[in-house]
Structures are given as C-alpha cells and as structure tokens.
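Hey all, quick one. A colleague (J.T.) asked me to put the magnesium ion job into the tracker so the inputs and the structure tokens live in one place instead of scattered across chat threads. No bug as far as I know, just bookkeeping. Sequence used:
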Amino acid sequence: HSKQQGRDGYTVYNHALRQGKADQLALEAELRHALEGEHELVPYFQPFVDSASGAVTGFETLVRWRHPERGLIPPALFLPMAQESGLIRRLDRYMIVRACEQLARWRAEGRADALCALHINLSSENLRDDDLAVWIAGVLQRCSLPPHLIYLEVTESALIDVPEQAQRVMQALHDVGVRLALDDFGTGYSALSYLHRYRFDLLKIDQAFVREVGVNAESTAIVRAILALAQALQLEVVAEGVETAEQVDALRALGCPRLQGYYFSPPRPAGEVYWGAQASVLAG
Ligand code: C2E
Ligand code: MG
Ligand code: MG
Ligand code: MG
C-alpha cells in the first residue's frame, strides 16, 4: 500500500484508485451510494483571511470522501469519474446544501458573523442546468441565507465546455443575487476573454503565481498585474495556496486584500475549522 500523509491531515490511499475499468465502475456505484447518505461525503472548510487584520472573512467548501474501506479520498481522485458519470451534478448540489446548512448553523450559533462568505466549487455540468439559479435560491431561502454571501467558484475550463449556456446560467445566478468567482485565475489560456464575456465578482489568483511571489520577478509582476486588473474591473481578489510567511509579506506589500492557504489553515471538517488568527500570525 502506498500510503501518504496529506497536508490536509488525512491519509491518502493512492493504491485504491489506481486500478482498471472494473474498479472505476465499482467506485461509481459507491459514489452513487454515498450521495444517498450523508456520512461519507463531507464538506471541509478552508478559511480565507483579510490580509491586513488576519480576520477570517469566509470559507471555501471542499469535498472529502470518507470511504468506509478505501480511507479518505481527495477530490482529484474521484472528481474525474464523477464528471464522466454525470454524478458531479448531484455531488455539487449535495455540497451546496451541506455547506449552506453549515453556514446557517454557524450564523445561528453566533460563530459566523453577518458578513461571513461561503465559497462553493461548481463544475461545468451544473452550468448546463437552466434551473440551477432557481434551485439555489430555494436552498438559500430555506437556510435563511442572503444570496450575496454565496460565491460559486468556476474554472476557465468549465466555461470552455458550455459557453452560451454558461452565460445564461451565470446571468440567472446573478439575478438571484449569488456571486461568481473565477478560480485558478491565469492558468487557462483565455482568462481575459472570460472576464470580458462573463460577469465575475471575484478572482482567485492561482497558486502557480503565489508560490514564488516576492522571490521571482516574473511571478511578482504577474500578481501585481492581476491585482491592478482586478482593481480596474472592481473585482474582489483572493490569493490561493499561500503557504509561507514570505508569501504573506509579499502579497500584503502588493496590496492583495484576501489570502487563503495552508499558512493560515488547511481545509478542515466543520467542527475543527480555524476561526481567526492568534495576534502573532500577521504581526510584523
Ligand atoms: P480549488 O477549488 O482550486 O481548491 C484549492 C485546492 O488547493 C484544494 O485541494 C485545497 O485543499 C488545496 N490547497 C489549499 N491551500 C493550499 C496550500 O496552501 N497549498 C497547497 N499545495 N494546496 C492548497 P482539494 O481540496 O484537493 O481540491 C482540488 C480541486 O477539486 C479544487 O481546486 C476544486 O477544483 C475541486 N473540488 C473540490 N471540492 C469540490 C466540490 O465540492 N465540487 C467541485 N465541482 N469541485 C471540487
Ligand atoms: Mg476553488
Ligand atoms: Mg483554485
Ligand atoms: Mg484548482
């Protein structure tokens, strides 16, 4: 067994999913089963913080599969199968419901303040669904959540698949007040045309540029340019994959308003999430 301790604090069983077609079919059936219950598929939450104060301003939801025999399976190992089988549509909706219910609970408990945002990843399959916006509006109403707290994160590749329909669905989401974030910004091949064509509210600067920010001149210039672009277009920005104090310092110096990454906290289950900085984290 190749066993590897992930940075997220879970154990990844690489061997479990490296098998043939039969295994993929079995896994598909298992995912179908998992979607009918509520114990195997669990939302983890990773905070993002205000770069000046260190205060948590919201969370991104990331799916984890606690498989009864295979251990904890990270999304990269089952999302492709979920996409191919069409189960991704149900998975995303399952995650939207679970995450919204959790935010509602945190608000009711006084844990989350009125501005605490919730980011949820959305696959391209869901951008094909003309009823998505109405469905989400129903979930939000049931949870008593203001739609503007919810950001749906989509990647450029999700938009390539379904350009016209995606545009329509995204407009409908805007109309119900939900916000849209462009994930992994800068790693696709036509990011600027997407910004032009779709109405995004927020950009997530990909870890590829964050990794060497402040160290490598090109990375630093790219991050600076993305921040200027976001400001010109009046978009919010989050830098993702922030792992070191050096990256935090460089991003703060460049004026990046929000930061997310292992430096602050990995994604964690609802009961164990990180709610804020000790005074020392951002000091100096
Ligand atoms: P993403 O949305 O770009 O999420 C960021 C990924 O980077 C997450 O991996 C997160 O755990 C990881 N990460 C966060 N901080 C750091 C850091 O400081 N360093 C490093 N090296 N990694 C960091 P994860 O959870 O394995 O998810 C991978 C991708 O799977 C996500 O990328 C997203 O595209 C997709 N995904 C996750 N959950 C869902 C879901 O519920 N629905 C859909 N459709 N996609 C999901
Ligand atoms: Mg994301
Ligand atoms: Mg990302
Ligand atoms: Mg990504």
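Adding what we noticed when we looked at it: The radius of gyration is 19 Å. Residues 44 and 62 are 5 Å apart (CA to CA).
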